[in-house]
Structures are given as C-alpha cells and as structure tokens.
Amino acid sequence: MTIPAPLVLIGAPLAMAVVLQLLRRWTMFMALLATLTTLFCGLLVSFPPLLDILSSGAWQIALEEPLSILGRVVVVEPADRLPLTFIFITAAILFVIAWRLLPHSNFFPVGLMMVAMLAGALMVKQVVYTALLVEMAAILAVFPLHEPVGAHYGRHTKGGARYIVYMTLALPGLMVTQLLLDLFAIFPNDTTYLQAATILLGLSFAILLGAVPFQTWLSTVATNGSPPVVTFLFTVNLGTVWFMLLAYLESYAWLVTQASFAPLFTTVGLLMMVIGGLLAASQRHLGRLVGYATLVDNGAMFVALGTWQVSGVTLAVMLLLARPLALGLMTMGLDGLRRLGSGDDAVETLAGAAWRAPWRTMAFVVGGIALAGFPLSLSFAAHWGLYRVLSAASVFQAVLALAGCAGVMMGVLGVGRVLLAPLPQNASREHSPEDPVVLILIVLLIGATLLSGIFPQSISRIVAEMATGFTFFTS
Amino acid sequence: MTPFINWLSQLPSLISTPAAWGIFLTGAGIYLINEWRIRFLMWGAQYFFVGILFARIFDTRPEMALLKTLVGWLICGAFLISARVRGQTTPQVGPRWRWSSNLPFRILSLLTMTVVAYLASQKYPLPFISADLALACFILIVLAILFIGTEEDDALVTGVGVLNLLSALDIFYSSQDPGLLVTGLLVMVNLLIGLAASYLAVVEVAE
Questions:
Q1: ipTM for the assembly
Q2: If you compute the radius of gyration of chain A from its CA atoms, what whole number of angstroms results?
C-alpha cells in the first residue's frame, strides 16, 4: 500500500500534537517529541533515501504521490521541498530553544498543529485553501503567544489581537483572487480580472508580510508576545508566506509579466528598510527592536526580489535561512532580560543588566548584529550580495538599503550600551542564576552564527541550488 | 417538498433586505451599549440575521445555513463565558446598563459609515451577488471597521469585528462557491477566532 507523503507530513504533527496535550506536565518529553516529529518530517522531505528505509514490504511512503481530499489535490512538488524542509527544521530548532524557556507550555502541541497547517498550505495548490490554512495557523499562534507561562507573557494581549486582525484582513484578498482566476479561466480575453487579482494578491501579501504601512503588527506582536513564539511567527509563519509568494510568482506567469512589479517590490522593500531602520535606531524597548529588525529583514527580501534576477531569489532565500539563527539568539536574550526586568523590556529598566545576565545580553546583541546583516553572520553574506546586485543598477538604492541595516545596528548598539552601563547604586548586584542548558544552547547558536558567517559558501551553494526550483525570472 | 418547507425556502429571499438592516441594528447595539449581556443578546440576534442570508445562499442545502448560525451562537456562548469571567474580576462601578464612552462620536461615526456602506452598495455593486446580499456585506465590513478601529484594547469586541469581517467574506464567497470544503474551513476559522478572542479576554484578566 502506498501512503502519500502529504498524509505523513500533515498527519504526523497533528497526531503528535494530540499526544503532547496529554504530556503537558513533562516539558522535556514534549520538547523531545515535538523536535523529533518535525525533524523526521524535515528529513523525509529533504532526504529521499529515508523513504526507502522506512518503506517495508506492504507499506511504502511515496513523496510525489498526491493526496486527494474531497477532490482537492495535496502534493509535494519538487519546488515545495525547500520550503517544507525550512519550516520543519526551523520548527525543530525552536522547539529545542523553547524547552527551557516555556515550561509546560501549549507551544509544543499548538506549534505542531501550526506546522501541519503551514505544510498543508504549501502543498495544496489552490490559493483559497492555502489562505485559509495560513489563517488557521495564525489564529492558533495566539494561544501560546499570550500564554501566562513564567508570569511575564500574558499581561498585554494587544499583540495577539492585532495579529489576528491583520491576518484576517489579508484573507479576503487571497480568497477573491481565486474567484478572479477562475473567472479569467472562463473569460481569457478579459484582462481586468488579472489586474484585479494582481492588486488583491499584492495587497494581501503586503499585509501578511508586514509591509509598510501594515507593519504595526510586527512590533506589537514582538512587544507583547512570548519571545520563542514570536520567533516562530517571524521565521516559520512568515517563511511560509514568503515561499507562498515565490510559489505564486512561479505558478502564475502573468504575475511576473506585470511590468510594475519590479519597481513596486524595490520601492516597498526600500521603504520598509528605511522606516524600519529609523524606528529601530530610536528604539527603547528590546521587543520592539526585534520587530523592527524583522521589518528591515523583510524589506531586504522584497528588495532582493525587486532586482528581478535569479540571484535576487537566491539572496531572498538566503536571508530567510539566516533569520532563525539570529532571531533564535535574540529570543534567548530577550527572554532572560525580560525576566530580569519583571516582564518589562524597556532599556531604562534594564540598565546594567549585562553585569547580572551576561550570556543573555551577549545572545541578544550577537543575534541583533546578525539580523542587521553585519559580520560575522550568514545574513552578512546575503546582505553583502544584495548591496552588490543593487549597486550595479543604482548606488542610491544600495545606500538606502545599507542605511536601513545600519539603523538596526545602531538600535542594537544603543541597547547594548545601556545594558553594559554600570549598575545603579541602589540596584541589586546579585548575579542572575543561569540555566546550564540555556547556556549551552546560547553557545551553540553563537557558534553556528559565527561558523555560517565565516563559511557561507557551503550554505549559499545549497541555497543557489534550491533556488533553481524557482524559474520565474529566467522564463 | 411539503408546503411548509416550500414556504420556508422562499422566506429568506423575501426577508433578506430586512435581515441586512437587522444586522446593522444589532451591530449598532453592540457598538453603542457597553453592557456585555445586551451585547451578547444583540450578537446572537445578528447571527440569526446572518443565518437568514445564508439560508438564501444555500437554498438547496438549508442545513449549511443552520450550521453557520449554530456555530455563530456557539461562539457567542464562548464570548459570554469570557465576558462573565472578566465581569467577575473587574469591580462594577456605576449602573449596570450604560452607554459606551464617547457616545456622540460613536453615533456620528456609525451613521457616517452606514451611509458610506449604503452608497457603496448602490454605486459599486459586488459582482455575481444580489443587491441585498451586497448591502449586508458592506454593512458587516463597516461594522467590523468600527469595532476594530475604536475598541482595539477590548479583545472581545475586536473578535466580534473580525468575525463580522469573516461573515461578510463568507456571504460573498459562498454565493460564488458554495463548496463543502471551503464552507467547512470557514466554519473552522470562525470557531478558532471565537476561541482565540475568548482566550485573550480571559488571559488578560488572569494576569
């Protein structure tokens, strides 16, 4: 009997999510099972020989075998393998990080459910189902985002509410696009359907990706939400949306031929980078800094796609791959520093915190530098490539992009300066006890960031190979 | 088909315009009165009117309209419980029944937006759906904007706004594609939003 791979990729995380709900008392088991499940799914997609090992005589898992649900086809296409690997492996890393940060949290079962939804969104080929599955994953995220774990995260729920609002605002555009495409199939000479579909699709993706002026949800979520879950949203959820965009550009040739798309992407991207950089540079809250740094990073990805070159896609994918490492580090730092400030992450509260929580401070600063695209990090290699491609066409645009990243760097350095300030006279000088597992994770993440920064060639080669699946700029 | 069922199936097309205005009146009640018991009743009534519109869309499958209405009432129940929990933890000051704050502004914005919705439904008719359904869609969108725009700090009212927006989308989309899978997924999205908004309201209280 042949089992379609989509059934395993969606079914395994969902089934495990149910099991994890029963194991809420044992955080280690939850983290371990969640990590193993997502790792297994990631390897299943990225390492096809595993399928042969798993297949016994009667049962065979077939990667290309489509799964039909009420007449709708869910299938793993070659271009889906990179996105699926990315979301599963990133989720696995984040489950490990959350192990010590979110005890007894519903993040593990809900995170698995979200991964299943997002994997389904990538594998289903109709826009309407993709949109609904992404919406469901977004709504599910609210539960761990404001879970009162560790006494600091549930207090303000504005971030979660705003996230739901924005994700729902993006839904009509995507769903109506499907209707318009169906109408265009019936009336192929009426191009107004295509124009309307292009506008709606563009608007929906702008909201989903937090493009200016829809960026407010990024900073609010980062300010109010639990750091590991915020990182999950900014890497796995946003990553899925980016891959959805790439998939649509690949599937709908007419979208690429819209002449205004390249300048639109570049303009929106540069706007995001400049505004994000300005806001990050003047930021006095650590959580918001994470949000604005992500805004700049998203902007850089838009700019990369706006170059309308194959190398642009490669750079965009590389930026996306670099994000989990940087944000993972910032998460670990932010979590510890917030605990130190009793839930408050304003820099005034945390003045001198580096002397009490040196590792957390280091994690936050190194992660911030990496996300800003400065050496030594994988993100630096991607940003450097972007400046080179941009400067070939317009030096001014390259300078603007660099200025945006410099803004994030200034924000990180400003925060670092306050964290490293001498402790106030009346402040407690007690050293905050550090969990050894968290320390090991911080060291590992810093090591991985530095290594990927020193040797980016191997990763960029893999990314370039993977990006060949997206051929829309070559056609 | 029995005469009663026949009469019942014709009913939605006759009363869909009043149902659209019923949605407006109940929405106005939620917007203007700051008492969760009344808001809950209004919202339950609003789902009844939305159900009538769905009965028109799913004219050959009334059970789908019934399902949507029941899901709506289920969400109302979840909100009611959350509002009760919040009411118990927040000390009541002043009379139990009171108008929302900034009442003149709210009345003015409600009237303005309603006029906008009505004119939009006349000037920009939505494709492939009848005028009364289009009017209901515009009213629901306007109410959603008002709820989300003016009560962002209240997770429950924001949730009502998001669900109104989804109802508008649901009416419009289901008119074009009343497929079982899309309907099922939309029902799930509605339920999840209801649960998430209730959860946010309770979590805020717990802290």
A1: 0.89
A2: 22
